[in-house]
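User: quick one, fold this
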Amino acid sequence: TCSPVLVCALRGIDAFQALGAALQGWTQGRDRLSTGDSLPQALMALTPEVTFRQAILFFTEADLVTEHTKLTQICFSPVVGESWRCRAESLFSFLQAGAQLLCTVLLIKPGVWSRGLPRILRDLHLEKFCVVGMKHLELGAAAAASLLPCELQQDPAAVEAHCAYLTSGTALVLCLQRPNAVKKLMDLLGPEDPQLAQALDPRLWRAQYGTSTVQNGFYGSRSYAMAVQDVNLFFPEGLCCAQGQPVQEQEV
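Assistant:
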C-alpha cells in the first residue's frame, strides 16, 4: 500500500490468453534482469467473473462502457431510472458471451471457383467458417473498381487491368461467419502478390491459386467496416442464416 499501482481494463480478441502470454514473456524477461523486488509485478484476472468483480471496484460505468455501447444500451434497454448496478450487469453479460460472430466477404475470382470450389469449401469448413450467403455473378466495372485497395485506385493502368480481369467472367461471392472472421480470412488468403505469399507459406490460398498480382484468386474484406459494406453490396436482400447482430445494426 506504500506504492502506487496501475490498474488497466483491457479489451481484445482472446483477451485472457493473449494477455497471459504477454505477461509470461514479460515476467521471464524481468527475471533475467533482476531477482529482487525492485521491478514491477503484474497480476491479471483469469475469468470473466473475476474481471467483473474487480472492474466494478476500480472503474465507473463511464470508464467501462464506450459511447457506442452506451448508445446500444439506450436503444435496446430504455429502462427509465435504471441504476448503475443494473447497467454494469449488462457488461457482465457481454464478458460471458465470448467472441461475437462476425461476417466477412470472400469473392472467388473468375476461373478459380469453377475448378477449385470443392476444395475451397472443405478448407473453409476446416477453419470453422459458416457460409451464410452465396451467389455467382458478373461484376460490373464500378463494383470491380470498388474492390481495389486505395493505393491501386490511384493508378489508372492497374485499375484497368484488375477491372478487365474481374469482369471477364463470373465470380462466386461467399458471405462467411465465425468469430474474428475478417482477420482469419485475411490470414488464410495471404498477401495480394502470390509470389510473396508463396515465399511466406505455400499453404496460403493466394500462393496456391494465384498466378499474378491481378489474377491472385481471391478478394477478401480487409477490415470490419469494409466487410459490412461488402455484405450490403453483394447481399442487399439479406443473409440466409447468419447469427448475431443484423448488418443494419452493425453499420451504426
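User: anything notable?
Assistant: Residues 67-89 have pLDDT under 50 and may be disordered.
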